[in-house]
Amino acid sequence: MKKVILTGDRPTGRMHLGHYFGSLKNRVKLQDEYDTYILIADVQALTDNFEHPEKIRSNIREIALDYLAAGINPDKTHILIQSKIPEIAEMTVYLSNLVTVSRLFRNPTTKAEVAQKKHIFGNEGESITYGFLGYPVSQSADLTCFDCDICPVGDDQAPHLEQAREIVRKFNSIYGPTLKEPQTVLSTTPRIKGLDGNEKMGKSLGNAIYLADDEEAITKKIMGAITDTNKIKKDDPADPEKCMVYYYHKLIDNPNLATVCQECQKGSRGCVACKKELIKVMLEFLKPIQEKRHYYEQHPELVDKILNDGTQKARKKAQEVMKRVRKNMQIDYDFIDK
Ligand code: SF4
Fold first, then answer.
1. Could you tell me the pLDDT band of residue 337, with boundaries at 50, 70 and 90?
2. Ligand 1 center to residue 327 CA distance, Å?
3. Tens digits of per-residue pLDDT, 269-328?
4. Cα(18) to centroid of ligand 1, in Å?
């Protein structure tokens, strides 16, 4: 039996190179080795987008297109929509009894997010909602509903996983061995920097290249990328390690990388020419991804079927787990079910 791995994303926007190199590429590899579930976390996205449900809805298909374009194979991976698995909501309610409000407030990831989202939660977090605070409980339900063995996360999400493990242990200590305790595996894939040199590529930061960006958008973004600020004139020598253009040449494996580096250091390469070369290599790199995406864009009925099949298979698994949960919690009222 293959081990189960669960990953997922909030459908709040299209996916960019940060997602591709930070997780998608790795998921494509893992799907051969594991029984893989990818959760489109629309319920969780609503915790801080509850006033904009249209944004979530419109991005469900976009994110599915990005998965398929990047190489996620629906024959190997269940792609599922969170809100269509009511067992997750039921599990969330049961698990919410097993964690205190003060423990949820102490979660470092929650604290950091509240500080980042002052426009939603107020300067002192006075407007924090019950749903947002309970996000780690809902994540625990995602993991336990599919008997997840492994959940790869970035270090920023590790506290949520630790909280999930605590909740599972508590559940099992009260109701007997029922839920699988997921193992946290810290992702070894790098966090991808933005074109502006920011440590993180992000939609809100405006420094991202999207998998679906066209030539015009890519050209504009790369021409505006940050280079070594000490290089003033075209023939000034520069340090490629201080340049985001070089960073991206490296990231997408430009076969001409050694020459880019040497010419930059010698001052025999101008930044405009260097950026133009990166645009060309970037378009080549994205070509097969975009061709696949285009194919699925032209066949929306296929995407719908993939989402439906993945969700139905995942639901079957969640129903099995929930049967076990209800039995051990002594709320399997068979006389009602009959
Ligand atoms: Fe960056 Fe290329 Fe300019 Fe060097 S020549 S600073 S690598 S854009």
1. low
2. 64
3. 999 999 999 999 999 999 999 999 999 999 999 999 999 999 999 999 999 999 999 999
4. 21
pLDDT score of 7: 94
Do residues 47 and 137 touch, judged by C-beta distance below 8 A?
A: no
The three-state secondary structure class of 81 is: strand
Nearest CA to ligand 1 atom 3: 271
pLDDT value, residue 156 = 77
pLDDT at 338: 56
Atom 4 (ligand 1): residue with closest C-alpha?
A: 264
For the chain, give the mean pLDDT. 93
pLDDT score for 206 = 82
301 within 8 A of 272, measured Cβ to Cβ: no
pTM given for the model: 0.92
pLDDT at 258 over 80: yes
- Ligand 1 contacts CB of residue 222 (under 6 A): no
Using CA atoms, how far apart are residues 78 and 72, in angstroms rounded to an integer? 10
Residues 8/146, Cβ–Cβ less than 8 Å: no
Top-tier CATH class for 4-193+300-337: alpha beta
CB 99 within 8 A of CB 48: no
- For ligand 1, say whether the CB of 281 is within 6 Å of any of its atoms: no
Residue boundaries of the structural domains of the chain = 4-193+300-337, 213-294
| Residue of 193, 222, 223, 228 to mutate, ligand 1, most atoms within 8 A of C-beta | 228
Residue 94's identity, in one-letter code, is Y
Ligand 1 atom having least distance to the Cα of 274: 2
Atom of ligand 1 nearest to the CA of 271: 3
Torsion of CA 187, 190, 196, 198, to 10 degrees: 50
Q: Show the tokens assigned to 192.
A: 């991808």
Cβ contact 87:137 at 8 Å: no
CATH of segment(s) 213-294: 1.10.240.10
